[in-house]
Amino acid sequence: MSPRIRGLHACRAWFQARPRAADAVLALALLVAGLPQLYLEELPGGLERYYAQTDVWHLLLVVAVTMTLTWRRSRPLAVLGLIVAGEVVIAVAHYPPAAPDMVAFMVAVYSVAAHRGLAVAALGGLVALAALNAFMLVFPGDMALMSVLTDNAFVVGVWALGRNLRLRRAYLAELEDRAARLERARGTDARAARVEERSRIARELHDVVAHHVSVMTVQAGAARRIMDRHPAGAREAMTTIEEVGRTALSEMRRIVGVLRTERDAEPAGELAPQPGLGDLGELLDHVRETGLAVQLWIEGEARTPSPGVDVAAFRLIQEALTNTLKHAGPQARAWVRLHYTDRDLTVEIEDDGRGTATIMAGNGDHPGHGLVGMYERVALYGGELRIGPRVGGGFGVRARFPLEA
C-alpha cells in the first residue's frame, strides 16, 4: 500500500472517530465554495433590484447559518430550526439567497431524516416543506407550478434519502449484532464441546487405567504367591505385567495427547486409532492371562456399528471385565455375548462371582465411577443399560446400542 493511500485511510479513520470535526469541515467547504457568489455584481435574471446589497452582516448571517451544520448529527432538529430561523432573518433583511445557506438547509433536512426516529424525522420534514414554500412566496422569482412541485419533490427526495440510509444502517447494525451473537453462541458451543470432550477423555482414562492396573495387580499377586515354588510362572506373570504396563502407558499417552496444545501435541502418525470390537480378542486374551476364564459368543450376523458405538461397546466390556477381576473372586468365570440384529447390538457381560455388593456400593452410598461412566457412555449413543445381580449369583451388565445414528 502506497504512503498516499495509507494517509487517506488514516485521515478517514480520524474523521470517523470525530464526526463533529468532519461536519465542521463540510460547513467550511460549503462556505469556501459558495461565498464568492455573494460578491457578484449582478444576480441572474436581473433579480439584484429586489435585494439589498451584500455587506458584512449578510456575510456573518450566511457563515452562522452554514456553520450550524457542525452539530447536524448530534442535534439535527435544532440545527434545522436554526437554519430556518437564519433564512427568515435573511429574507426579512432583503439579502439575496446564497448557495451555502441553501445547501445547508438541504443537508439539515437529510440529517434529521438520517439521524432521528420516524416521529422527529417526520416533524423535521414538515418544517422543511413549510419553510421552503414560505421562502418561495417571500423571495422574488419564478412561482410557476412546475418549479414549486420540483422544489418540493427535491426536499422530499432528500428526506427520503436520509430515511433510507438510516434504515440501511439499522439493518447493517442488526446483522453485525446477530453475527456477534452467533459468534458468542459458537464460542459457548465450543466450550461445551470441550467440556464434553474432557468428560469423555476422563472416562477413557478411567477405563484404561482401571483395566490395566487391575490386570497388573492380579498378575503381581499371582507372581508373589508362586515365586518360590514356580519361578518360571512368576517370570511369565512379570512379563505380562510389563506388557500390560506398556500398553497402559501407550493408551494413556494417546488419550492425554488430546488435551495438549497444538504446539506440544505428538505427531499424528504416533497416535493409534481408538480400540473397538475388532480388538475384543486381544482384550479377552489379556484377561485370560490373569486367570479369569472368559468365554465369547457372537449371535446374529455381525454388522459394522458406527465408530462411536464401536468404541463405547468395547469400553463397556473392558469396564465390566475389570470389575469382575477386582470384585468377583479368584474362582469366578465370565461370559461375553454380542447379539446383532438389523437395528441394534446387544452386549452382555456376566460373571458368577461374589462381588455384587462391592460393585454396586462404589464409593460411599453412590455407584462407582466406572458404573457412572457406563451409563453416560451408553446414553450418549441412545442406548439402554441394565446393571445388577444375576439370577443364581454373580453380576450382569446388559446394554443395547442402536446400530444407526
UniProtKB/TrEMBL annotation:
Which EC numbers characterise this protein's activity in its record?
A: 2.7.13.3
**Domain Histidine kinase/HSP90-like ATPase, residue spans:** 308-405
Q: Is this entry keyworded Kinase?
A: yes
Determine the domain of life of the protein's source: Bacteria
Reaction equation(s) it catalyzes: ATP + protein L-histidine = ADP + protein N-phospho-L-histidine
GO MF terms, alphabetically ordered: ATP binding; phosphorelay sensor kinase activity; protein dimerization activity
Keywords of the record:
ATP-binding, Kinase, Membrane, Nucleotide-binding, Phosphoprotein, Transferase, Transmembrane, Transmembrane helix, Two-component regulatory system
Q: What is this protein called?
A: histidine kinase
